[in-house]
Amino acid sequence: MNFGAHVDNAIRQVPGAPLRVRTDLSMTLFLTRPEEYDGGELVVEDTFGAHSVKLPAGDAILYPGTSLHRVNPVTRGVRLASFFWIQSMIRDDGQRTVLFDLDMAINQVAEAIPEHRAVIALTSCYHNLLRGWAEG
To answer: What SS3 string covers 92-106?
Structure first.
């Protein structure tokens, strides 16, 4: 009922298929209510430190597959969770971050100043970056 610090494998075989998936993003779906167990927090480390996560049943966290992470020991009850790995069309984590930040900024400008020409210009930049960075 714990898992030591690790980075997820870079490539995962799809069971029963000749396919492989690059694990750009990792996701943990919490299946047990937090009050049903003690401990068991998912701890994800990044440049800003360690972040402890224990979400309600049915909630999930998405984090870079390159992140060092662990699951603290469960000291009471049972922690059930499901894990997923996602291959992004954008291989590079830094490029995915730039696109995410740009998309969030576009949304803020569009909300604050609807119909502003900057929204179209920024959206064009976003899609041209995506076009250049995306893999088929």
So the answer is: CHHHHHHHHHHHHHH
